[in-house]
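FAQ: What does a ligand-bound record look like?

Like this one, built around PM9:
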Amino acid sequence: MSRKYPAEPFRIKSIEYVKMNTREEREALMKEAGYNTFLLNSKDVYIDLLTDSGTNAMSDRQWAGIMMGDEAYAGSVNWHHLEATVKELFGFKYVVPTHQGRGAENLLSTMAIKPGQFVPGNMYFTTTRYHQEANGGIFKDIVIDEAHDSTIDLPFKGNVDLRKLQSIIDEHGADKIAYICVAVTVNLAGGQPVSMQNLRETYALCQQHGIKVFMDATRCIENAFFIKEREKGYENKTIKEIVLEEFSYSDGCTMSGKKDCLTNIGGFLCLNDEELFTQAKELVVVFEGMPSYGGMTGRDMEAMALGLKEAIEYEYIEHRIKQVRYLGDRLVEAGVPIVLPVGGHGVFLDARLFCPHIPQEQFPAQALAAQIYIESGVRSMERGIVSGGRDKVTGKDHAPKLETVRLTIPRRVYTYAHMDVVADAVIDLYKNRDKIKGLKWVYEPKQLRFFTGRFEQI
Ligand code: PM9
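The answer part, i.e. the structure of the complex:
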């Protein structure tokens, strides 16, 4: 019988000690870090839920693969292994390696966007929108409205709203659209999946108008699990079959290998168009490295090829998704407001509901993330107005409806007992939420300000 929260489908061979410092120390450290959890040192963190990016634990097979790294400048055997694996699992004709996901975003945005063109997408992502805008593109949000409301519980809250897409086409014409970016899953909506039906329909509409679709494949295996779990007709398909079908409704993808590839670094761009591929190979040597390594070492590429094969196994992905769900379920039971339903890579606290006494201009999610660290040593991340940044033209803050703190779960790193520690800490803080204070800027970087910005308490 399958368990509601399956046990780890692995046993632990190597461990890393973590240490809890005192509340007093954490209060001082948080102040020193400008109330930005990105600026804390890892050694001062007890449970690190900053991100699931590059924080994965690798398997013994991956570590063995690392010893097989072929560090030739050109034509590494590990590249051929990675290329063949990606082609087999994703089904695209061409693969271009990059140092991480944003490297692939840079290549795609540089090649495919003409200044002034729109790039519709199912919710923005920070680095993705940065590269689109840096190349003169204008991001348009075409995710369904429900994705912006934390309280609405829908199985596929990352879906593209086809009416929104159609109206951009009607209003501006297909020529004004560079391409559509469809993220599987949608990170900032809470790791919400897109249904296969929606992928199919989005692609069909784009094909009718000669518009290309590129996927942000970063969490495509997590998306596939939700399709298997929730979409009629997919119950008996393998994760591998579902992933392949996902990508059949696109012309290419960008991938951050630091997530679903179960590695610590790396990425790639996939394409079907030969001309674009030729152009990408010309650009990759400028920004990343040879088309046979793209900024990765041979050993990284080997680990990535092996990681992809492991991530696509049902036992792995079932445990992954349900461990995240366990944390979410504990918080819901205690009445803590989170984004519903629990998504793939983390639990997102609704900071507006958690801290109703802090207006959005005083950065409730940033303040909540800082306080969680002070109280418990757990590091999380703001995903709200600070991450939203400023409008390129008006200079005004993008003030997203979703003002969240993300408790992001690294893959294969923590146990259910760690999830309990996190849940207990957040529940305790929720009972004492009045003590959380709003913040103001001390230093606001011009780009991607959430990474290095600094604040002080009001
Ligand atoms: N995501 C994350 O923590 C790391 C950077 S932002 C703190 O969620 C998507 C959907 C991502 C993503 C990174 C990238 C960029 C693209 N798309 O970090 O450059 O979630 O490998 O990938 C982060 P790289």
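Follow-up question: can I read anything off the structure? Yes, for example: The pocket of PM9 is lined by residues 51, 53, 100-102, 125-128, 183, 187, 216, 218, 256, 258, 267 (CB under 6 Å).
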